[in-house]
Write a structure and sequence with these properties.
The protein has 544 residues and is α+β, with helices and mostly antiparallel strands. The chain is built from 14 helices and 27 strands. Helix 10 packs parallel to helix 11. The structure holds ligand LR7 and manganese (II) ion. Keywords: Disulfide bond, Glycoprotein, Glycosyltransferase, Golgi apparatus, Lectin, Manganese, Membrane, Metal-binding, Signal-anchor, Transferase, Transmembrane, Transmembrane helix.
């Protein structure tokens, strides 16, 4: 019986129905846990407990609370096993565990759901070799959910090697992680978000890499766990690497050709210009040498690029290991507000980006007014470590990134003189960046969807997420977007525009001019029309 293998995806799913009347707490709950923990997650839809009007008090509120947290809303076992779908070369590799450094896994959380938090903890415990895992350090960043108080303490006290630390005030993820790190006894710090699940074999490649190269900061490949169905989407092939756009939002990029050539095998770590931020391992000693984190950053955002720039500019190396996979839940909405992105990012830009920080400010005008606080200590750190310039970083580490020109007077919002409240606006759809039309929207002065750049190649660029160039599709009268040609390659006629002194925006290929107009419903929009410089609707101006 034990030898027989089943193809689980071909089997029907089941609901387990358990009726009870005045059953003892422990036998009842042991039944439930036993079902959850011995059933493959893909087969077990749910456990339905039917209370046949018991009159024992412990089967009332207490059971409900317990059930709410672990059974009914959390249909997926806290102990579910993720299949090892990594490359065969990764699965075949054997490690001499006694030669690897030990690690402390640090997980900061704020108001996280019970099941995602505990599934993370169990997943770490159950997929990490005991000799390598010193401890799991949970840092509660002053959550206010009641189930994260005594109940969590009770639960965690029954788990081996798990410590629960509470911050005294809301610290934000940077300082919360650092509080956790102070309790770490392992040689390597491994940071995870509080809604992750590890693929078997995830830890050894990270630790081995750091054992070989102390200045390596290594990230696992981040797989997606669907926030709704909790399905685990493993991507065994070549992963994406971390980059950014000039608003300084993190972006995924495909591995550039020069990096493909440099690597000798599919299982070599891949150099990555930036990290997503949540999941990485670093030697504790090296992390301290590097200046840990910028503790002036609050709540969320910015620290990932700051650490990435710092690692590269100060002599470290940032990598993604294709043999280490960890899943992450990308929720629809975070359980907290995130107002600190611009302020944190301005700190990163001020300390590390030199003159290139202007590209960030141009795209985020409100960031210029952010009071980002004192930076003298971080600037001293940069000097003390003898770090390289941002120019060096771009040329050496990230040569595939397009650097904007931002010629004075030729970037920002493009105002219509005809409908004076309106600016050109492009609302890039999330999963299809070129899938919209350029339109008009009330000028808001926040950059974002209204930031355009007119280049010396005569392109009108929109460069959030990726570099997009305005075009007029053949025989059409609207303005669309397409991916810009790579730096140095030929420029198709269709994306050439003459933004003239008189304020007209002429498109030679269609021989038409950009014109503002109102739709029959009264909405402001743009259209390509026969040129007429006396028509105010054809006049445009970059904001001053
Ligand atoms: O005030 C806070 N205190 C906390 O302890 C706010 C957050 N946190 C915790 C939180 O509970 C979680 O464990 O910090 C962790 C990260 O917060 P998330 O999960 O809300 O962030 P995210 O996954 O949306 O965002 C990504 O970018 C962040 C920038 O600050 C962090 O670097 C996150 O760690 C990072 N997540 C990842 O890299 C996972 C992959 C996402 C991608 C791409
Ligand atoms: Mn996260």
């Amino acid at each position: 019986s034990r030898a027989k293998a089943y193809d689980r995806r071909r089997l029907p799913t089941t609901s387990v129905v358990i009726a009870f009347y005045n059953e003892a707490w422990s036998t009842l709950l042991r039944t439930v846990h036993s079902v959850l923990e011995s059933s493959p997650a893909v087969l077990l839809k749910e456990v339905i407990l039917v209370d046949d009007l018991s009159d024992q008090p412990y089967l009332k509120a207490e059971l409900e609370r317990y059930a709410l947290n672990i059974l009914l809303c959390d249909r997926i076992s806290l102990h579910r096993h993720i299949q090892d779908g990594r490359l065969p070369e990764c699965r075949a590799k054997a490690y001499d565990r006694r030669r690897l450094p030990t690690t402390s896994v640090v997980i900061a959380f704020y108001n996280e759901a019970w099941s995602t938090l505990l599934r993370t903890v169990h997943s770490v415990l159950e997929s990490s070799p005991a000799v390598l895992l010193k401890e799991v350090i949970l840092v509660d960043d002053l959550s206010d959910q009641p189930y994260l108080k005594a109940e969590l303490e009770r639960y965690v006290s029954g788990l081996p090697r798990v410590r629960l630390i509470r911050t005294q005030r809301r610290e934000g993820l940077v300082r919360a992680r650092l509080v956790g790190a102070t309790f770490a006894t392992g040689e390597v710090l491994t940071f995870l978000d509080c809604h992750c699940e590890c693929v078997p074999g995830w830890l050894e490649p990270l630790l081995e890499r750091i054992a070989r190269h102390e200045r390596a900061v290594v990230c696992p490949v981040i797989d997606t766990i669907d926030w709704n169905t909790f399905e685990f989407y493993m991507q065994p092939g070549e992963p994406m690497i971390g980059g950014f756009d000039w608003r300084l939002t993190f972006q995924w990029h495909s591995v550039p050709e020069y990096e493909r050539q440099r690597r000798k095998s599919k299982v070599d770590p891949i150099r990555s210009p930036t990290m997503a931020g949540g999941l990485f391992a670093v030697s504790k000693k090296y992390f301290e040498y590097l200046g840990t984190y910028d503790t002036g950053m609050d709540v969320w955002g910015g620290e990932n690029l700051e650490l990435s720039f710092r690692v590269w500019q100060c002599g470290g190396i940032l990598e993604i290991h294709p043999c280490s996979h960890v899943g992450h839940v990308f929720p629809k909405r975070a359980p907290y507000a995130r107002p600190n992105f611009l302020q944190n990012t301005a700190r990163a830009a001020e300390v590390w980006m030199d003159e290139y920080k202007e590209h960030f400010y141009n795209r985020n005008p409100p960031a210029r007014k952010e009071n980002y606080g004192d930076l003298s200590e971080r600037k001293r750190l940069r000097k003390h470590l003898g770090c390289q310039s941002f120019d060096w970083y771009l040329k050496t580490v990230f040569p595939s990134l397009h650097v904007p020109e931002d010629r004075p007077g030729w970037h920002g919002a493009i105002h219509s003189l005809g409908i004076s409240s309106e600016c050109l606006d492009y609302n890039s759809p999330e999963h299809n960046p070129t899938g919209a039309h350029v339109s008009l929207f009330g000028c808001h002065g926040q950059g974002g969807n209204q930031f355009f750049e007119y280049t010396s190649n005569l392109e009108i660029r929109f460069n959030s997420v990726t570099e997009l160039c305005a075009e007029v599709p053949e025989q059409k009268d609207f303005v669309g977007m397409r991916n810009c040609p790579k730096d140095g390659s030929a420029i198709p006629e269709n994306i050439v525009w003459h933004f003239k002194e008189d304020g007209t925006i002429y498109h030679p290929h269609s021989a038409k001019c950009l014109s503002a107009y109102r739709t029959p419903e009264g909405r402001a929009d743009v259209k390509m029309r026969t040129c007429d410089a006396s028509d105010k609707n054809q006049l445009w101006r970059f904001e001053k």
